[in-house]
Here is the input.
Amino acid sequence: MAKLTVAFQGERGSFSEEAAYKLLGRGIRVLPCDTFAKIFASVASGHANYCLVPIENTLAGSVYENFDLLLANNLHIVSEVSLRIVHNLIAMPGTRRKDVREVYSHPVALAQCERFFVKNPRIKRVTFYDTAGAVKMLAEQRPPGAAAIASRIAAEVYDARILQTHLEDHRENYTRFFLLSKTSRVSPKANKVSIVFSTRNMPGALYKCLSVFALRDIDLSKMESRPLRGRPWEYFFYLDFVGNVKEERCKNALAHLGEVTNFLRVLGCYESAKR
Here is the structure.
């Protein structure tokens, strides 16, 4: 039986790869890509069964590029996973913790480990294009006194060693990912719906849209706006709500919303991620 192929952005050993294993297990084949656009394209072209895209982080906020790509591509959200982001100090075998003089990582990861650098002022932080890419560079170039901040999976992939774990300043650091497919499916356990819509720019328009959920006691869990290109100061609204598209109240809410919007698309109905 052929393995499922899951595309993600970044090098092998990225947090996205760790999230893919958490959601689907180690029996999958992974396909790293260098851009978000390419992972969407890999599913559309059939080179991958799924792609896993980060959509928001509890500290850094939303990944706006992926909201735009959700709209531009006809893929469906079939699942989601929430990954606790644990930053590890990683070095090649033979490098001791006291030998580390510089640490490479993505600027966001470096910024999330500020306390570590305050406690270790002699260690220089060096920005790099990717967390896992930093570990890959250590494995290829073996710079003396160098380490990286990345996921535990990166240490496994590049035969490196974790010198210290939990470098992050905030333990409540989670990234939420969507699993996307060319075909839509609704699990019997599905309890969350993601949609995108636009409405006329007039007084009370957005209020009318949101009222279709309030009238039916449907809980909204997230809302995001993105520019509607070609129409300045108008927006697409991305909305997550609790429910299932097969529930009568959700069916009625979506039908009602379709009457008061210019555009409406259901992006997916899936089971809410657990920590």
The chain has nine helices and 15 strands. The radius of gyration is 21 Å.
